[in-house]
Amino acid sequence: MSSEPAGGQIITTTPSATIMASSQLAGSSTPSTTTTTSTTVAAEIVGSTVAGIKETMKTLITTPTARTTTTTSMATPSTTTISSVSSTAAISSSLANDPTKQSVADLSSSLQHFGIVDYCVFVLMLIICAAIGFYFGFIEKKQKKKGQKGSATEQRRGSEALDYLVGGRKMKVFPVSLSLVASFVSGISLLGTSTEIYVYGTQYAFILITLALSGVISWYVFLPVFCNLQLTSTYEYFEMRFGKGIRLFGSILFSLGTITWLPIVIYVPALAFNQVTGVNIHIITPVVCMVCIFYTCVGGLKAVVWTDVIQTVIMVGAIIFVIVKGTIDVGGLGVVWERNVATGRIEIPELTWDPTSRVSMLSILVGTTLWYTQVNCGNQVIVQRYLSVPSLKEAKVACIYFTVGIIIINVLTMYNGLLIFANYHDCDPLSTQLAKAKDQMVPLMVMETLKSLPGMAGLFVAGVFSAALSSLSTGLNSLAAVFLEDYIKPFKKTPLTERQTAWIMRLTVVIIGIISVALVLVIQFLGHAVIQLSTTLASVTGGPLLSLFLMGLLMPWINSKSAISGCIVAFVTMTWICIKCQIALATGELVYPEKPFSTEGCTYDFEPKMTPANATIIDTSSKTFAQYIYQMSFFFYAAVGCFISVAVAHLASCAFGRNDPATMNRQLFPPFVRKFIKSKEYQSVFDKEDEDETLVMVYDMQIKSDLKQSLKDDEVL
């Protein structure tokens, strides 16, 4: 029987019968603020359905059957419910014993089918990636040395690191833009975004607004400073603005988050491949990772960027193909829209001030805007690609292409979520347990849509691996930059030779790559704990890191002691909030409402999921202040961490004093802040750049004045 919660109450369970909380979406290829459930589920996604569906969809019996209806009760924004099945165990048992229909167990037993064409598609993707690395690591490098032999410019100190980490700052805009998209999108987010829409509706779609806003912020605030300073490591800025200590602090936070995130990125497609083909995970993981380590190690950023281009094409092509064919099969756009509207999936975020509302307009506009600002503007993985183009002008063009690209991919994956529901509107695979977890819906839909086309299973797995490899390669290359520029050069008394630099960067890629492969084996046994560590670190570090950049760029009066004080307080506070949130999710204290599902049209036997008998009732009308804090929407994490850090830094400035902006390097601030400082009280003499800008303005004003006078003379005549 379904359980309808009373007003102001939610259904949950005791710790002995914990109900897994609903997944929170992974946002990016970089570490994101997600719950552990979403990422754990993503690792099981692809494999448990990819191949089996291809065979079993052909064997489903289509004769009329007894119908079992599954309904998830809809809740108001202030309440939280758990999906329940409105059918009895007796009905389920009778269905399971019907000899005329295939059971879910029979469908599962038909897994692990991967044809020759599928293997060829997958292997071809790996060969192309390795060939690109070989070209840039050996052929192109040899040609470059031969053509520029004896050139003083090429022999200058630092050219090896410049070429390896930022492509000599000569990369083209379009491939860099696609690499930015590939860096932002991971296999987890490709699967998670569609699942978010399927389970919770279109509220999340409003992040498209914040993606555009973060692009504008990057354009006006971050890029002018980073490009003019010609940085290699993003965290070099912290030393210029605050000192070595804060630079090291920022680099460590980035390194910890990335190193714990990379094995998760590898584990998702590796487990999928294992479940589809039967190939042991200990074999496929080292093989695929060695290919990635090879082209990243020998080819540097150029190889990473161009493999990202190929991998982005594979990802996007697979999504578009599935969407077009799936829409045709289901009956067109009108059918997709009608079926989603009928179940309340088309909706806007809640207009509420309640911080515990999962998706509100406030959490979207404030929380996700600041989160994506941190991901897109203050992350080494992204900023390093911006710095690989020749000038600020090209970086801004790449920013536009990147923003448009990630918006398009998000639109495609969000529509795919609506399409999945339109396809399964009367037979929810989650309720029948054909899909063992929420994020398994995407590969299920893919294999049903493309089951008649040979090689599509291989294309889908190649697409997921492409997303993973792009994330792994960009992560390794960025860590090489951070290790060289932040951990070694600042503490080396004598400059490194070109040979030493080359060895350090390549050894870093190899060592971190091997560590990532080793951690994949750990995740097999302690996966939930490792994933929780990674996602918690992302939530804990995102806000403080963003605050350091904002205080550095926009608040010249904040000094290093005040800034580090704010960061430490924010770090500790966000650690407490994230740990308490994870406990609430694990114990069922915090559960988010889902949209309704049905199994009315199922044509196979299944055992419906039942709400545990020991579910208890918790009154939500008397939440404590602490509960409002740690049960806040995960969208607020970056914003809260940032606000706490900035507020504490300003209070600490009363004790540690303030900077005099007049004595600071004006190139550390964006142009509009420089003008503010100059026009007030801090500086009366223009620097060279401002002087040139002023002369241009005066010249333009003179031209306009002459033109107006000419027009007046014409009127007189």
Protein structure class: mainly alpha
- How much helicity do the residues have? 55-70%
Anisotropy-based shape: globular
> What is the β-strand count?
2
Q: Order of SSEs, N→C?
A: EHHHHHHHHHHHHHHHHHHHHEHHHH
Mean pLDDT: 75
How far apart the termini lie comes to 92 Å
Strand percentage: under 5%
**Strand line-up of the largest beta sheet:** 1-2
Continuous helix count: 24
Concise account of the structure shown:
The protein has 717 residues and is mostly helical.
Blueprint of the fold:
Elements: E1 9-13, H1 36-56, H2 89-96, H3 104-109, H4 116-147, H5 159-166, H6 173-184, H7 187-200, H8 207-229, H9 236-241, H10 244-277, H11 281-330, H12 333-342, H13 361-377, H14 380-386, H15 392-423, H16 429-432, H17 441-449, H18 456-488, H19 498-554, H20 560-587, E2 615-619, H21 625-630, H22 637-656, H23 671-679, H24 688-716
Antiparallel strand pairs: 1-2
Helix pairs in contact: 1-7, 1-10, 1-17, 1-19, 4-11, 4-18, 5-11, 5-19, 6-11, 6-14, 6-15, 6-18, 7-15, 8-13, 8-15, 10-11, 10-18, 10-19, 11-15, 11-18, 11-19, 12-15, 13-19, 13-22, 18-19, 19-20, 19-22, 20-22
What does this structure look like?
Keywords: Cell membrane, Ion transport, Membrane, Sodium, Sodium transport, Transmembrane, Transmembrane helix, Transport. Belongs to the sodium:solute symporter (SSF) (TC 2.A.21) family. It comes from Musca domestica (House fly). This is Sodium-coupled monocarboxylate transporter 1 isoform X1. The protein has 717 residues and is mainly α. Helices cover 66% and strands 1% of the residues. It has helices at residues 36-56, 89-96, 104-109, 116-147, 159-166, 173-184, 187-200, 207-229, 236-241, 244-277, 281-330, 333-342, 361-377, 380-386, 392-423, 429-432, 441-449, 456-488, 498-554, 560-587, 625-630, 637-656, 671-679, 688-716, and strands at residues 9-13, 615-619. The protein has a two-stranded antiparallel sheet. It is globular and about 80 Å long.
